[in-house]
Amino acid sequence: MLSVRDINVFYGDFHVLHGVSLEVGKGELVAVIGANGHGKSTLLKAVCGLVPAADGDIVYAGENTRGRNAPQLVERGLVYVAEDRRLFPDMTVKENLLLGAFLKRGRERQDKTLAHVYELYPRLREREKQLARTLSGGESQMLALGRGLMSAPDLIAIDEPSLGLAPNLVDNMLQTIRQLKEDGMTVLLVEQSLALIEGVVDRIYMLEEGVISEDAAQSAKPAG
Amino acid sequence: MQQYIEIFIGGIAQSAVYCIMAFGLSLIYGTARILNFAHGSLYTTGAYVAWVLTVGGLGLPLVLAVPLLIVILFTAGAALERVVVRPLRSLRDWKMSTMMVTLGLAFVLDNANLLIFGPVAKPMPAFIDGTVTIFGAIISSYRLAVLGIALAVLAALEIFLQTTRFGQAVRAVSQDTQGAAQVGIDVNIIFGFTFGLSVVLTGLAGFLLAPIYLISPLGGWVLFLKAFVIVVFGGLGSTRGAVIAAFTLGLIEAFVVHHVGASWTLPIWLVTLLVVLMIRPQGLMGVWEK
């Protein structure tokens, strides 16, 4: 479904990703782990067209998509959910969700997906008229993921969903992500801590100082 | 009493035009985070283009001249974003660079206008003559028409931003540019569009105020300064704040002009601004840049 081969990404003179490659099969739940500042977010953003990759190939759904921008990739079903939520603070919860269905792809299934998101997170329905800036950390994360789902992704790239969440909320979040996989969605997840996602994901990559390696031992474990 | 009605209506008519101009300045700051120093020169240029289209050259009737003016201004604004601003955005210090470039553009436009149209101010006849009597106060019909047009433009902008899909996209970009890109909004198109719209608004303000102030090559700077004070007063990037600020300051101006003298307008505006900023550093409705 997604095949990243040898990409290099720079921020100005700073070389962030060094020849990174990874594979995500259809219906898989794959995680990339690594410490802060080692390029995990950059990797997801490069895959989703939010930062340019200098070279290498990013093949998504059979097409080389390196150089395509985020709107083109969203229309093809590749959606990024940011670690820092990136909500529209002065719009209501519902307006935020509906903007997730901005493009034709999401808009065509808007009502069905909205019902699904509200089913997943009844809290968002309760707060649908509230401004996004008034939400708690946990609710913001729900809205960020909900807005991503509104784009009707085939592959959803989720950047550190546990960031800033209380431990019990993290469990809920991981269960939801697991549920997305059960529903047939492909998920590429980024997290800092191995302990958090052990047993939840299918395969794990480690990213250290911009260099990636597959963690064979972890990958061999059956997914829980 | 009649005198105060005159001052009040004159004041809100003036405010409404300031408001259109400030709205444009705020719109660009809000979406693209660019302070456009050429806003005043574009105001003047818009007035000159309107003059050429109507009394100064082509002699077109207003029904033709106004749509044509809007198309020309929008195209110029969108082109400005595409050709001048967008290439700078990939630079590390793009905010400072674009600000300097818009300042340079202001001087280019001012001098071009000076060369083409000469140093003598051009008169622009009001497109509506006569006066109207309201509660015994005599008001120029033109000022009333300006008020009506400006309010209609503001209402249209508000409806556009709040209810249309494209307007929502503009608001989304102004609230979180990366978030907007994530949901599939083409941020560059929105930037180009807001530049176009902003130039239409400032040029239209130039056209509306031309019969009152005449058109002169450097006439836009005072208006730019006023629009800037309005935008800071209202809160950078908040178009609603700009609306409230424009009417507050416009009314203050009307009373100052009548009681103290026109040259006191800007000093009193700036003192008002200082007081507001001491109490609310982010302006009336502004949010801090994160």
Describe this structure in words.
- The complex is a heterodimer of chains A (224) and B (290).
- Chain A is α/β, with parallel strands linked by helices and 224 residues long.
- Chain A folds into 2 domains: 146 residues, P-loop containing nucleotide triphosphate hydrolases (Rossmann fold, 3-Layer(aba) Sandwich), CATH 3.40.50.300; 67 residues, no CATH class.
- Chain A is built from 10 helices and 10 strands.
- Chain A has a 6-stranded mixed β-sheet with strand order 6-7-8-3-9-10, with helices on both faces. Chain A has a 4-stranded antiparallel β-sheet with strand order 2-1-4-5, covered by helices on one side.
- In chain A, β9 and β10 form a beta hairpin.
- The longest helix of chain A has 16 residues.
- Chain A is globular.
- Chain B has 290 residues and is mainly α.
- Chain B has one domain.
- Chain B has 11 helices and 2 strands; from the N terminus they run ααααββααααααα.
- Chain B has a two-stranded antiparallel sheet with strand order 1-2.
- In chain B, α1 packs parallel to α5 and α9 runs parallel beside α11.
- At the A-B interface, α2, β6, α3 and α7 of A face α6 and α7 of B.
- What's the overall geometry of chain A? globular
Structural class by sheet pairing and helices of chain A: alpha/beta
What do we call the CATH topology of the largest domain in chain A? Rossmann fold
Tally of helical runs of chain B:
11
Question: Biggest interface, and residues per chain?
Answer: A-B, 29 and 18 residues
Strand percentage of chain A, roughly?
25-35%
